[in-house]
Amino acid sequence: xxxxxxxxxxxxxxxxxxxxxxxxxxxxxxxxxxxxxxxxxxxxxxxxxxxxxxxxxxxxxxxxxxxxxxxxxxxxxxxxxxxxxxxxxxxxxxxxxxxxxxxxxxxxxxxxxxxxxxxxxxxxxxxxxxxxxxxxxxxxxxxxxxxxxxxxxxxxxxxxxxxxxxxxxxxxxxxxxxxxxxxxxxxxxxxxxxxxxxxxxxxxxxxxxxxxxxxxxxxxxxxxxxxxxxxxxxxxxxxxxxxxxxxxxxxxxxxxxxxxxxxxxxxxxxxxxxxxxxxxxxxxxxxxxxxxxxxxxxxxxxxxxxxxxxxxxxxxxxxxxxxxxxxxxxxxxxxxxxxxxxxxxxxxxxxxx
Length: 353
Description:
This protein has two domains: 2-63, Phospho-2-dehydro-3-deoxyheptonate aldolase, domain 1 (Alpha-Beta Plaits); 83-351, Aldolase class I (TIM Barrel). The strands form three sheets. Strands 7, 8, 9, 10, 11, 12, 13, 14 and 15 form a nine-stranded parallel beta sheet that branches. Helix 3 packs across helix 4 (144-157), helix 6 (191-198) crosses helix 7 (214-225) and helix 10 runs parallel beside helix 11. It is globular. It has helices spanning 11-23, 45-50, 107-119, 144-157, 171-177, 191-198, 214-225, 254-261, 270-274, 277-290, 316-332, 345-351; strands spanning 2-5, 27-32, 37-42, 59-63, 83-85, 88-90, 94-100, 124-126, 160-164, 180-183, 204-207, 232-236, 266-268, 294-298, 336-337. It is α/β, with parallel strands linked by helices. The chain starts with a strand and ends with a helix.
């Protein structure tokens, strides 16, 4: 069951709902979005119905939700949501391109990649400071030094930063520098991490695990929402199948399915899906055409020397094509290409030093 509070509901009115729910041994999880506050209830529905919560001051609606991912479902919030990351919109009506190097290697490489990202139509910069890798001998990232580089590049370019956090202990330090926290495919069901990022107060990019069903993906998002954070973006990045011709198999049907089941924005990562540079643009076209709210794309000034996933990174010579695809297809789909907000200069510079 979900209690939707009125936009003008006070903190005391929210607490009154929580107190009543707890009085019948139920649990209440308060989630605050940009325009609404929702209280998710866990416990005996019969007991909750006896409380007549709909009559309380500040309560707009009480909805009985049948799916396990109550807060992120369309059952309680039929309209699809748009979230903002540093002023950049992600969701219905816009196409948001997020681009950058898979891994932060140096200040020069990251700045050059960020400029390439802007040329590709990106309004946000992605870059990995912490890199969970299949092999313990692969490049693991620069850690906090990489975060400082990202903050400096944000100050230089005006691009909001999304970067991965890999364990609960690292959430606070990553949140200090990043505008959006990424939970990678390998951590999609790291429930302690999901709860920690949900409590961090920053938007979250949640990648689908490469062996996860859509229901499992949405249930993972619910862990974040249950900790009070509805500013979540889902990212389809390809799943593991029997096919070996590509790195992963892009489940293009996951976009409309997830959008039907959940109000959260859904973007696509065409770089990790195919794992090959020549597949990035075709898969990006498919993602936009099927209704994705954005793209997550690897770019690198010198892919041959990249320390992580160079085979799928777009070089300078391919940037114009991805920019043209994003601009033309977004218009065709009735969307506006999101632009950088330009809010970051002095703030980012202060954080990074």
